[in-house]
Amino acid sequence: MNTVTKNRLKSVGITLFLLLVINIIGSFFFFRLDLTKDKRYTLSSTSLHIIEQVKNPLYIKVYMQGELPTEFKRLQLETRQMLEEFQGYNSNIIFEFIDPLEDEATSMDNIKEFDNVRVLVTGGRRGLGASIGDAFEKLGATVERLSSKEVDLSDPEEVASYLSSALFTIPDVLVLNAAINNPHEVDNGVIGRINDTMQVNFTSQAEIISKVFPEMLNRNKGKILSISSLYSQRSRVGRAAYSTSKAAMDALIRTCAIEGAPHGVLANSVSPGFIENAL
Q1: Are 79 and 64 in contact (CB under 8 A)?
Q2: How sure is the predictor about 190, in pLDDT bands with cuts at 50, 70 and 90?
């Protein structure tokens, strides 16, 4: 064996040894680099503080496994990555993904739970909203899909008319998915864009909440889910209107969560990450 070959083998051996050492050291420490410009995958200090407060095992079951629509596959991936990051900071957080239809006996029980459930999905005719509606229907729920064909959320009078009509019934589950995006930089024209976007993304759906939420409290049950966005916490050029509307909705949902919890009413926002859609 000549000197050149020996040196190459030596270099390879040293490289493999260093990689092994790095992997061993890395197994004892959690570290993630966020190379995105707006740091969209970096947990806030508030989130980290909450995660650190989990002193006992926290078991999380995510019913998002099996054959899923394309939009839900992306949501599943984003959810898994988020939970993995939580787990990296605190090993007391334990999660598993479950297919609610995998076991025939269990799947029938799950479906029966939705036999008499009414679901209202705003923006439920296309994209993520359509997939959410399809998933509930597959479980046996009765789904009302609200889109511009039924009610124009940009028209306050039409929203008020719908909520006072016989067509509107209080749902057991309210999914707030409707949204528009009017990109515009902050200048003299941005206020008009903000007002238009707030009407669809926040005001109209806040009116729906104001009609639904008190009835849920009286029933001591109900669920409200708002499809939020990463832009509710971070923004970028031209997203003043969209980010403002999503941040406002998140604030309202947090208040509903606080007021609803003692009555068994759940309110949550979820930011599913980037999904290819009309926005």
Answers
A1: yes
A2: confident
> Whole-angstrom Cα distance, residue 256 to residue 129?
22
DSSP bridge partners of 173: 119, 223
Pair of tokens at residue 25: 């050291």
> Which residues are within 8 A (CB) of 241 and not within 5 positions of it... i.e. 6 or more apart?
181, 182, 183, 184, 190, 193, 194, 196, 197, 198
How many helices and strands (H and E) does the chain possess? 9, 7
Count the Cβ atoms, other than its own, within 10 Å of residue 117: 16
Secondary structure (3-state) at 4: helix
Q: Calculate ∠ Cα 257-249-152, nearest 5°.
A: 120
DSSP state letter for 201: I
pLDDT digits over 2-20, tens only?
Answer: 665 666 666 766 777 677 7
SS3 for 121? strand
Q: Is the pTM higher than 0.70?
A: no
Mean pLDDT confidence for 139-157: 90
Q: Is 180 helix (H, G, I), strand (E, B) or coil?
A: coil
